[in-house]
Design a protein that fits this description.
Blueprint lengths: L5 H36 L17 H4 L1 H6 L6 H15 L15 H13 L5 H9 L1
């Protein structure tokens, strides 16, 4: 396995450093913008729609500790609660669930009732034994 040339390594380090600095500048700008928006709101509550809550998908990856350090419009606990609800909605298979255990076919249930009426002296064990044979 060959090593990379020093020039290529230097260029990669320069570009990655520039990208990192650029990301830090963007983050600082967004934090300043959030602080400004919070001052404008003056404690008033914002109502979010479900589509506006979609960025909560990223909150788990960021983590609670990092969210506490950020200036967010809503609290980290709210963001994590939204994330939990999104996960719960994703894994809710209510539309696939049926009405429960499938019923017994009509002719089978009629046969069982007729056997029970004709043989009233049978107990459960005897009835079960005769049905299974």
């Amino acid at each position: 396995m060959g090593s990379t040339s020093p020039l290529l390594s230097f260029l990669l380090k320069m570009v990655s450093g520039w990208v990192h600095r650029h990301q830090l500048i963007v983050i600082e700008f967004l934090q300043a913008e959030n602080r400004l928006l919070e001052e404008r709101l003056r404690g008033r509550r914002i109502r979010f729609t479900d589509s506006e809550r979609l960025p909560a998908r990223k909150t788990k990856a960021v983590g609670r500790k990092a969210l506490l350090e950020l200036d967010t419009i809503v609290s980290p606990d709210t963001l994590l609660r939204w994330h939990r609800r999104l996960v719960a909605q994703k894994w809710n298979f209510a539309e696939r669930r049926g009405a429960g255990r499938p019923g017994i076919m009509r002719h089978v249930s009629e046969l069982i009732v007729r056997m029970a009426q004709e043989n009233q002296r049978w107990g459960y064990a005897a009835f079960k034994r005769r049905c299974l044979t």
